[in-house]
Write a structure and sequence with these properties.
By secondary structure, this protein is an all-alpha fold. It is 78% helix and 0% strand. 1% of the residues are buried.
């Protein structure tokens, strides 16, 4: 019987046993309590089935539904308040007209600088194309 239990245990730890095979293993350790790890494990499982858990407070299904709905509405109101509050604040809004003019000038200068760099590259390409055309005409 020992070799059969060992084979069943090996299948059990690999997760390949059927319900009937698990019953055989459990009944074996129930009728033959030993001091090995498997015996302790299966006794622990058997004892856990006997433990009855009692909740500290039982909430009826109706109360749980109302609490869930109240929580959902509360979260929705908080989210809406945060979104609308942030929408009113424009991080780029400048109240002082002089500061707004200065910020606009700086932005336009930055764009102008980038466009000028692009224009320099375009001039170089134009020179290259002109030289290429002259070489083609000579050939």
């Amino acid at each position: 019987m020992g070799s059969q239990i060992d084979k069943l245990l090996e299948k059990y730890w690999q997760g390949e046993t059927s319900l009937e095979e698990e019953k055989v293993i459990k009944s074996h350790f129930k009728s033959n309590p030993g001091l090995n790890n498997e015996s302790h494990y299966f006794r622990y499982l058997a004892n856990q089935k006997l433990v009855k858990y009692e909740g500290s407070s039982r909430i009826s299904r109706k109360k749980a539904t109302w609490l869930s709905a109240a929580a959902t509405v509360t979260i929705g109101i908080i989210t809406a308040a945060l979104v609308f509050n942030d929408a009113k604040k424009d991080p780029f809004a400048i109240e002082d007209p002089e500061k707004a003019l200065q910020a606009t000038k700086e932005a336009l200068m930055m764009i102008s600088s980038e466009l000028n760099q692009g224009q320099d590259h375009t001039l170089e390409l134009t020179k290259f194309n002109k030289a290429k055309e002259e070489l083609e005409e000579e050939s």
